[in-house]
Amino acid sequence: SPTDVLSDPSHKFESMDASPKWCVKKKEDSPTLASIRHRIQSLAQLTKRLGVYTVGHMSAAGFEYTGNGDTARCKDCGLEVSNWRSDMNPFTIHSKQRPDCPFVYNIIPSSLSNEQTNPSERQSIEAMDSESVSNTLLETSLLQQVRRRTFSHWPHPTIPSSAQMMEAGFFNCNVGDR
């Protein structure tokens, strides 16, 4: 039954038959069917586990499995790690062992590299950062005011209320139900 398939953790997606059973005339690999099959194979690949973590999880940390046990390698810096345990965080290990890796450098905010600058430069940078935060907060406040004004003539006294709509990030355009 479908429930058995969903609850069976050993179920392999690769064995799924994507062809519809109810069709009288079978179309030979239509573009849509081929696209669906490709997507299923891609998802199956991302959820495949060669070790503790899925391929997708390791990829998010900059690693690719090498095919040799659970060994994973970064394609940017060449760092190889194996014998993964569930208490090991792939990105933390990557960033601590190779902080100069281009992949890690693109993920970690540049403010972390400020620790290497001298204290007077750091104070100047921190002052600019706090100024940009206050500008961001001001912009957010202005955006909320504008959003509130668009709901000044909200014609629906019931759910959802104008407050709920504003909180959800909507603007009212006062044209029908758009």
TrEMBL record:
<dbReference type="GO" id="GO:0005634">
    <property type="term" value="C:nucleus"/>
</dbReference>
<protein>
    <submittedName>
        <fullName>Uncharacterized protein</fullName>
    </submittedName>
</protein>
<dbReference type="Pfam" id="PF00653">
    <property type="entry name" value="BIR"/>
</dbReference>
<dbReference type="GO" id="GO:0005737">
    <property type="term" value="C:cytoplasm"/>
</dbReference>
<dbReference type="InterPro" id="IPR050784">
    <property type="entry name" value="IAP"/>
</dbReference>
<dbReference type="InterPro" id="IPR001370">
    <property type="entry name" value="BIR_rpt"/>
</dbReference>
